[in-house]
């Protein structure tokens, strides 16, 4: 099994990272009801999670807890020895350590009471330990499973058991024989020993340990499920392995016919509910019906709420599918199953299911169940899930009086309270409420909580405070909430067009870069720069990071106006960077030779084209930054549009070059983007088509062509128009896995109307201009 788990983990890891990282599983799951805050540690391996194939490395008992076997030994010793003494003998001692000289309290008790039978049992058990396991055979030969020494020990255990006077020791010897028989592949012996010795005995931990092995050799699948359910409930250390045996496809009616009482029926429904990754309300109702005092009722409720959280809040806040989903994110139907519209529709269905669970909780008699606090919190939380925020807040108010503020559970319900308070506001009037502020400060390292509050504000039109909260994410200091929740926030946008490896965000700047309008970013800056606003401690915390980012935000506003082709406003905000003492403008300010190869703007976008020899003489050098480029573009366009200008074709051509260079294939793409990549992005930038199609460049090359005086310059304009058209065709007809096009280059050439015009009207020039870019200089000089 250990090798199998390793194989599964490796397989999953390879499938996730083979094509690059993409958030999945616990990275994306939203959970605000942490199972660790409730007293169900022995069930922790079955907390709802996408990590379903890992046993608990720390065991199933909390530190210092006394397990059932230890309790049996303490009782056997008439409560005269400590649990620690028992634990040391059972788990730390070797056979040679068991002697009269040992100071161990348990051994001293046996020697003083002359209980040699117990001493001999412990020594024999230590002898068996080496053989309680399977040993790897690289040739996978079956005969290696059965060992003569193990057979000898089985026979000896049975022999001693038959002559031992003490009943409990007899059962312990029989259990050792059963366990050895399992590893010796002797299934007949297991059945025989269990059915003749244990079947009629009192059901203590020895019984359930023995039943554990008996389950593996049973052929009746319904009976296997019944045995598994009883072991699962009563033998915590066997839960993970025995749960793998339970077959959810077997009819529960067939399993339940073996139950002799309500407790056993409840156990069956309990394990059936644990095994369900989908809705398990029916199982929860049945466990409550048959054994309401059973702690499994409460744990199953907790698990169901954790499921609902994933189904509702993971999509609602992050727009990812739930971490455990029946829908594949990749594949033929991925777009159909994973569109934002479909994801949010499923959220509403799951909120409706949450309402059914809430109705059940409302009908439960709290005097009958073992953990009323959990049920009260669950009731309040489910009210929030179903959007009954006021009912949630009323429930939280009632329950928080009964929980110490020092208890982790108190912080837990404060998080739920903050979410409900924020969600309970009117759209367009939402703000960070005074009662929510200290909760945010206390949980500032929990990115998912901060993001959820921010998302609630964003959904209610308060994008400014949302951005402030998103800016507080510092992944290096993110709180590790636990194995089942990383605390780190990743999310998508409602404007996502399709699924790709790049359709999510984890940083505030990347997000507002794509989603916020320039006016929304201006509002963020205005709030920070408002000198009339006296800041309280929370506001100082809220603004602390973005206050250091003002120059970057000015740059972003200007960049957003460039995307809108609003050049005057772009220049206005870029100008602020030159006068702001805080500005650290990293763009290359001067042309060569001062520019380093790695600097931005290492070539003038008006006079130099990427992958093309320089062919336009620049009369006067000027600074190369976003402001200067924008102001020169405004100037050239103004001159080009002047009816009296004699060189309209020249200025339109320079403007067209700049627009071309601002696109993905240009040398000044950073005028529109903060990152460059060779592939077509799926991010919903408002100028996405322009960035890939070079439409503004094409528009201005057409105006240059219209005002051209010579055939050679007209031919050059057509050549550049053809470049723009090629970019457009590649964007509209990508040659990818979904759209394979044979003879792709010929396809692009034949559909390119400007190249066809160049070929038809300037045949001689076509061959020269298409074969070499070095001819551009000659053709540009021939403008007059």
From TrEMBL:
Keyword check for Signal: yes
Keywords assigned: Signal
Signal peptide residues on this chain, from the entry's feature table: 1-18
Full protein name: Tetratricopeptide repeat-containing protein
Organism from which the protein derives: Flavobacterium calami
Highest classification ranks of the organism: Bacteria, Pseudomonadati, Bacteroidota, Flavobacteriia, Flavobacteriales
